[in-house]
Design a protein that fits this description.
By secondary structure, the chain is of the alpha+beta class. It has nine helices and 25 strands. It has helices at about 55-65, 70-75, 90-100, 120-130, 145-155, 210, 220-235, 255-265, 275-290; strands at about 5-10, 15-20, 30, 40, 45, 50-55, 65-70, 80-85, 85-90, 110-115, 140-145, 165-170, 175-185, 195-205, 240-245, 270, 295, 305-315, 315-325, 335-340, 345-350, 355-365, 375-385, 390-395, 410-415. The strands form six sheets. Strands 1, 2, 3, 4, 10 and 11 form a six-stranded mixed beta sheet that branches. A hairpin with a 7-residue loop joins β2 and β3 (about 30). The protein is globular, with a radius of gyration of 24 Å.
């Protein structure tokens, strides 16, 4: 049987990057574009009847041949059309074409997670639609932001790196942003899981960085180093930081030797530009192969309620999450096939992290046709009507040739509490 890949796909307005994992690898690897370069320019082009993407499309720009399109993500979200002569293309079609071409070396994809700078329902819907047209199972398509990618990357590193807080500094060529991963208060969710979040704690525009690139200006570099060092000291003030990660093309030149000494004082520091795609790849692994995720990443846009029911999964009895805290409501529609031992009402448990409560809802099964043990197969479906309302439907699937499906179905509307602006109370 062909080995499938799970993909972490970082994408922003200028570039994309692909990390992948399969059972022949010990850990995710990142697709190399050129020597020591993982970034694929987010450009698509066409010369006569031949399509090109990435660096080949960028070459068409430089030689002014054919036509090329940049800023694909921005144009797709705006619903733009691209005109070239008598040809007309939807920007989202071009983005889909780019993504398919960039993934053409992976003949079988089991799961994919897109990592974007900032997440919205619109971008999630668009990228999910593109991936679903590539024959990737809908329940194995996820979208997350850079902060969540950082978090999932750290989950697969030695625990001492996030024993306390872990810092991420992201730098382009004129701005530096600082993020902190921290644990939320212990005991939430009955103390059965660890909950973490990532906060943007500071940012600074450093105009001297513009002069550092592409040629290193020593005086400007020294000024930028001094400003960055002060920025670090303000971020670390009164914090216990276990590790530091630097990412972004702004860190390419070694213009910050003094700052680096401060970063490495009593903590481990790492630099690299494939953190987000690798973090997305780790997420794809967690979502595909782990039934109950721990630790759990939370943010203000994530569900803080969980819906579970008692199931035996892989021979182990558990309260299985059909709606998990730490997910987005618009990514929580799903279906399962369940084999019942006997006909009895289905008990659902709704656990709220914000309220600290557990309540029970019951789906009545008294109208379900009577059959022998383990011959009752149902479909259970979750469908979110909005961010606080989940409809759960149970249908009879029959049992092969022995019992045909009937018209039995029951619905239950579950009202969730949501954050209600109380996310900070979890700190």
């Amino acid at each position: 049987m062909e080995t499938g890949n799970i993909i972490g796909y970082e994408i922003n307005d200028k570039t994309c990057q692909i990390s992948f994992y399969n059972d022949t690898l010990e850990e995710p690897e990142t697709l190399v574009v050129d020597e020591d370069n993982y970034q694929i320019p987010l450009i698509i082009g066409k010369l006569r009847d031949t399509w090109a993407y990435g660096k080949e499309a960028k070459r068409l720009v430089s030689v002014k041949e054919g036509f090329t399109v940049t800023r694909l993500l921005e144009k797709s979200l705006a619903g733009e059309k691209i005109e070239f002569g008598e040809e007309s293309y939807e920007a989202v079609w071009l983005l889909s074409k780019f993504i398919q071409m960039s993934l053409q070396s992976f003949t079988k994809i089991d799961a994919i997670v897109f990592s974007v700078p900032e997440l919205s329902e619109e971008i999630a819907k668009m990228l999910r639609g593109i991936a679903s047209r590539m024959n990737i199972e809908k329940s194995h398509i996820f979208i997350q932001d850079y902060k969540e990618s950082f978090c999932n990357y750290l989950f697969y590193q030695p625990k001492e790196l996030w024993q306390y807080e872990a810092a991420l500094f992201s730098c382009n060529r004129n701005e530096i942003k600082a993020y902190m991963l921290r644990r939320l208060k212990p005991g939430m969710g009955g103390g059965k899981a660890t909950f973490v979040t990532v906060d943007e704690v500071a940012s600074a525009h450093i105009k001297e960085l513009a002069a550092v690139y592409p040629v290193l200006n020593e005086d400007k570099a020294k000024d930028a180093d001094v400003i960055f060092q002060r920025f670090i000291e303000s971020v670390f003030d009164k914090r216990i930081v276990s590790s530091v990660f630097l990412t972004g093309d702004g860190f390419e030149n070694n213009w910050y030797p003094s700052s680096l000494r401060v970063l490495c004082n009593g903590r481990r520091a790492f630099i690299g530009n494939n953190l987000y795609s690798k973090g997305a790849c780790y997420t794809a692994y967690r979502k595909t192969y782990i039934h109950v995720e721990d630790p759990v990443y939370l943010s203000e846009s994530k569900l803080t309620d969980q819906i579970t029911l008692n199931l035996r999964v892989d021979g182990q009895e558990m309260w299985y999450p059909i709606v998990s805290w730490g997910t987005h409501w618009y990514e929580s529609d799903n279906q399962w096939e369940i084999l019942l031992e006997k006909v009895e009402d289905i008990e659902l448990r709704i656990e709220s992290l914000v309220q600290g409560t557990v309540k029970t809802e019951v789906i009545k099964m008294n109208r379900f046709p009577h059959r022998g043990e383990y011959s009752m197969r149902i479909q259970l479906e979750t469908l979110f009507l909005d961010e606080k309302t989940c409809k759960i439907t149970v249908r009879d699937l029959g049992f092969g040739e022995f019992f045909l499906p009937t018209d039995f179905h029951e619905e239950k509307i579950i009202h969730l509490g949501g954050n209600d602006g109380k996310f900070n109370s979890l700190s």
